[in-house]
């Protein structure tokens, strides 16, 4: 039993030794292959000895786990700064479209990235204003249609003093009233004025005038009119003067602050002179009516007319400036010129009157 055991042990030892020698030969094989070219170069050159080099470890990237999908997060559009929006909201609470346009312009210049939002706010404001104006206009039209002939009248009463030059040169008192009714198509204007002055029992100024003028609107610009007028001025040489005229008018301006109307048409005049025979003449009447509301408290008006006939021409001009004092009460300063090309014998051609008065409207 002892001999076979030793034979087996010797066999195993020889096997292990053979395996060890094989491993050494295989390990030195790369060195032998690389050294052959160096050995073949000849005895003059020194051989290059290369040592075995272990390959570098594999490159491993340490990356975070890649998600299966890219997450989507909904983000709101950039919003206008609170201060700028508050400024725009404050401007748009008013009815002043011009002021709103100015604020919007500067906001767009200072906030160029928010132009779309600013433009949307302005568009919403303009749409709201258009709806409000349309509703207001419709309500006003309904009120006018339902009104009676004695309704919708507006009145002004004027009291004050005057100074005249021309045929008389003195101070006196003046009074006037004006009634106006404006409907959808018709407008009625009634006016009357009186200037009176007495010095030591002698009347030095006595002038009265009254007129009625209806207008009928044809379209936004054109209208027709008729006018009847009565005048009395003994100082100028006539007891009574009646005028009847009619024609066509045109509204050149019809805005909120400025209005301008022109009228033209034939006229017939009947004059009862103090010292001369009565006379009836035909003439052509042209007139201009201009109103300018400079601001809520200040108003400028200019009225002028011309009667051009074969025997005598009459030109009148009335310029007035009104200033609000309290609600319904205004101060008025006016200057009037009246020129006759062929006045009665003994009368001057031109009269002027400067008036200062208080006007109450209701």
Task: Write structural notes for this entry.
With 362 residues, the protein is an alpha+beta fold. The protein has 2 domains: 49 residues; 209 residues, monomeric porin ompg (Porin). It is 26% helix and 46% strand. A 12-stranded antiparallel beta barrel has the order 1-2-3-4-5-6-7-8-9-10-11-12. α2 runs antiparallel to α3 and α3 runs antiparallel to α4. It is rod-shaped. The N terminus is likely disordered.
Helix content: 25-40%
CATH fold name of the largest domain: Porin
Specify the CATH class of the largest domain: Mainly Beta
Question: By CATH's scheme, which homologous superfamily of the largest domain applies?
Answer: monomeric porin ompg
C-alpha Rg (nearest Å): 54 Å
Task: State the major sheet.
Answer: 12 strands, antiparallel, barrel
Q: How many structural domains in the coordinates? A: 2
Q: How many beta strands in the DSSP annotation? A: 12
Which architecture of the largest domain would the CATH scheme give at its second level? Beta Barrel
Going across the biggest sheet, name each strand in turn.
1-2-3-4-5-6-7-8-9-10-11-12
Mean of residue pLDDT? 82
Q: Alpha-carbon distance between the termini?
A: 150 Å
Order of helices and strands: HHHHEEEEEEEEEEEE
> What fraction of the residues are assigned to beta strands by DSSP?
over 45%
Low-confidence stretches: 1-12, 31-42
Overall spatial form: rod-shaped
Helix/strand-derived category reads: alpha+beta
User: How many separate helices?
Assistant: 4
């Amino acid at each position: 039993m002892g001999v076979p055991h030793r034979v087996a042990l010797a066999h195993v030892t020889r096997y292990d030794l053979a395996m060890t020698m094989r491993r050494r030969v295989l390990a030195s094989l790369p060195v032998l292959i690389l050294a052959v070219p160096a050995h073949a170069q000849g005895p003059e050159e020194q051989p290059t000895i290369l040592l075995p080099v272990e390959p570098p470890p594999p490159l491993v990237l340490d990356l975070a786990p890649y998600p299966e999908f890219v997450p989507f997060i909904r983000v709101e559009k950039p919003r206008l700064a609170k201060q700028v929006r508050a400024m725009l909201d404050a401007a748009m609470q008013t009815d002043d479209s011009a002021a709103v346009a100015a604020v919007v312009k500067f906001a767009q210049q200072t906030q160029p990235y928010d132009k779309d939002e600013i433009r949307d706010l302005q568009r919403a404001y303009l749409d709201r204003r258009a709806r409000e104006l349309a509703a207001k206009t419709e309500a006003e039209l309904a009120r006018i249609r339902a009104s009676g002939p004695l309704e919708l009248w507006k009145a002004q009463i004027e009291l004050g003093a005057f100074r005249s030059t021309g045929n008389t040169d003195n101070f006196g008192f003046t009074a006037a009233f004006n009634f106006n009714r404006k409907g959808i198509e018709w407008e009625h204007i009634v006016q009357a004025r009186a200037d009176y002055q007495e010095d030591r029992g002698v009347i030095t100024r006595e002038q009265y005038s009254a007129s009625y003028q209806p207008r009928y609107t044809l379209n936004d610009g054109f209208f027709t009119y008729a006018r009847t007028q009565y005048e009395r001025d003994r100082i100028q040489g006539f007891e009574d003067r009646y005028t009847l005229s009619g024609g066509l008018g045109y509204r050149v301006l019809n805005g909120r602050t400025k209005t301008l109307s022109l009228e033209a048409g034939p006229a017939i005049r009947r004059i009862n002179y103090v010292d001369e025979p009565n006379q009836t003449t035909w003439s052509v009447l042209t007139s201009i009516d201009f109103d300018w509301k400079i601001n809520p408290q200040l108003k400028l008006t200019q009225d002028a007319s011309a009667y051009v006939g074969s025997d005598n021409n009459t030109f009148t001009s009335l310029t007035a400036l009104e200033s609000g004092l309290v609600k319904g009460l205004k101060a008025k300063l006016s200057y009037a010129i009246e020129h006759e090309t062929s006045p009665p014998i003994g009368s001057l051609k031109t009269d002027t009157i400067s008036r200062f008065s208080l006007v109450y409207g209701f």
